[in-house]
Each structure stands twice: as structure tokens, then as C-alpha cells.
Design brief:
Layout (H helix, E strand, L loop, with lengths): L1 E7 L6 H17 L7 E6 L6 H12 L5 E10 L3 H13 L4 E6 L7 H4 L4 E3 L8 H20 L7
Parallel strand pairs: 1-2, 1-4, 3-4, 3-5
Length: 156
């Protein structure tokens, strides 16, 4: 199952980018034998200042056709890492070939795009900077693959 992370904004060089790249590399390495991955990042920028509707249009164009869509949203489902791993495995086992995680900009995800999502995930009731959400998602993808592989990374 290919994984796409569609996000508003550019993650520049620096510690967040290094962490993101490291966790995504780990996910690809651990997930491929499990039919998870590869993962790629698609970044969009609304340079015309159209706000959330314009960002939603750019994000929608970057989602692969037929992809399962999971928004990263403060209103989404909060789950444990093992539950997230099981959800990924279930989507894969249902024959989904593409999974797209959508990360909005500073104002979030436009309601029209949220309504099209198959699932919505939250990293808790706190609001996180969208650049950190990328790192946290990449880490959780790697953790999920490690859990499914029976690796020692995740400890209860």
C-alpha cells in the first residue's frame, strides 16, 4: 500500500526535516516487506492567498485517484499506536493500494475536504504546528510498521 503525505507548506532544511526524512526512511525499510510503502511527501503552497478553500483545491489535486483519504485533524480519532498499526494493516488487507494523509496549513483543513475523507486522525486535543505533525506522522508510520513486524522499537 503506497502512502502519500499531502501537506500545505514546505518543510525546509533543519531538525524537523532531518527527523521526518529519518522516520520515513525507517518506515520504507521496515514497511516494504509488510506491503506498506513506499511513502512520499507532496507539498503544496497557495501563493495567491486564497486561504483554506484554495489549499483544499491544491491538496485534492495531489491525492492519487482512488486513494483512501485520512485527514490529520484535531477533531479526528485519537488512538494508541498499536490501534493505528492495526488500522493500517486493515486498510492494506482490504486491498487498498493507496493511502493519503492530508495535513492542512496553519488554519487547518477546509470543511469541504474534511467531508471527503474516509478517516480522520488526531494526535490529541492539543493543536500541533503542521510542520511537527509531519514528523509525528512519519514516526507513527515507522512505529506501526515496527509493531506489525514484531520489532523491538515499540515497547508497552
Amino acid at each position: 500500500m503506497r502512502v502519500t503525505i499531502c501537506a500545505v507548506g514546505r518543510l525546509r532544511k533543519g531538525p524537523e526535516r532531518e527527523l521526518y526524512d529519518d522516520y520515513l526512511t525507517r518506515f520504507d525499510r521496515t514497511g516494504r516487506p509488510l506491503a506498506l510503502g513506499p511513502a512520499k511527501l507532496v507539498e503544496v503552497e497557495d501563493k495567491k492567498g486564497g486561504g483554506m478553500p484554495a489549499e483544499a483545491a491544491l491538496l485534492e489535486r495531489s491525492i492519487p485517484n482512488g486513494s483512501l483519504i485520512c485527514t490529520m485533524d484535531e477533531r479526528g480519532e485519537v488512538m494508541t499506536s498499536p490501534a493505528f498499526a492495526q488500522k493500517l494493516a486493515n486498510w492494506r488487507d482490504q486491498g487498498r493500494s493507496d493511502l493519503t494523509f492530508v495535513i492542512g496549513g496553519a488554519d487547518g483543513i477546509d470543511p469541504s475536504l474534511r467531508a471527503k475523507a474516509d478517516a480522520s486522525l488526531s494526535f490529541g486535543k492539543m493543536v500541533w504546528p503542521h510542520m511537527l505533525v509531519r514528523v509525528m506522522l512519519a514516526e507513527q508510520l515507522y512505529r506501526a510498521a515496527s509493531i506489525l513486524a514484531g520489532g523491538p522499537y515499540h515497547r508497552v
